[in-house]
Amino acid sequence: MGAIDDLTTELARLPGIGRKTALRLTYFLLKRTPEESRRLARAIETVVERVRECSRCGNLTESDPCGLCQDQRRDPRIICVVEDPADIGAIERTGEYRGQYHVLGGHLSPLDGVGPDELNIDALLRRLGGSGGGGQVDELIIATNPSVEGEATALYLQKLVRPQGVRVTRLARGLPVGGDLEYADGVTIAEALSGRREL
Amino acid sequence: MGAIDDLTTELARLPGIGRKTALRLTYFLLKRTPEESRRLARAIETVVERVRECSRCGNLTESDPCGLCQDQRRDPRIICVVEDPADIGAIERTGEYRGQYHVLGGHLSPLDGVGPDELNIDALLRRLGGSGGGGQVDELIIATNPSVEGEATALYLQKLVRPQGVRVTRLARGLPVGGDLEYADGVTIAEALSGRREL
After folding, report:
1. Residue in B with minimal Cα distance to A54
2. Measured between CB atoms, which of A26, A36, A39 is closest to B47?
3. Please, what are the domains in chain B?
4. Which of A70-79, A101-110, A169-178 bottoms out in mean pLDDT, i.e. has the lowest?
């Protein structure tokens, strides 16, 4: 059963999918009509063929520059820096942000060999007007993940960018909405305390 | 982002994969090298192209009859009836069975419109020698799932086959090995009691 084994092996390479789930998916793909399963194969081919990184912000896109960069209604004076393209989706779904984005493509992680050169930082500096162009950015919102690496990356960016006179902000930390104080971890409660706001 | 949306939609059609997981998989496929992701697409195409049902036992195979049916070392006097091809894998992994198989392709489920005609039962009767051929089968092991539908299917098959003088058996029910009596459900304990064996 070479073909079945091959597909199971390929599916098991996906994150969060073990050998058993992969086998179940293989049988599912065989149970559907060939046309339905081929649609998945073609969707993968199409994505691999067409989707590229936006040369301006690093977002994944089929057109370069990407739709967000091309959108004239978005405020060019604010740039929100995220680790991955998926983070843009998370922020866009809130409908609360109308500025531009910049995707780093990860976070600083020296142990994994990810230093500043591995991240999309040069392009960010260019956008901030470092090398002659632009200079119209007022605020840089750093929206890296609230993890140790995300914090380190935020700190690094802040030090790098502040001399240019750009305001650098960071997403607020605190209690997640709908969460329960009793089950929140200590660090989060401490952050929520130090970041408390006047009612 | 048409291509990304399309792939996410296709991935979300897979069982156990919701919209969020599908999006995560899409970004994962984009993060890998194009060649790695294309391998998955090609594996799907290949499986869809090459894998067929074995005309004899209903197992999924690239050669017809399938490897299990062609294997001369397997005992042709015993046929194990399962619901799905995946069940064959589960039994083969035990290494305890050396007979042949027959795949029904599901279980009886009148509410879903699955009657005897929708299952691979005619071919089973032919193998038992109903229409002239064979007649060398001594035992039919019914290994449908231990669910209500699986039981109903087993009962139906038993009534259908017994007049042909074939011995019909069913996989034993009882406590799963490594399980805990305290957490076993009542029906299972009752089955384990009624099926108890001399030490």
Report:
1. B1
2. A26
3. 3-50 (1.10.8.420), 75-170 (3.40.1360.10)
4. A169-178
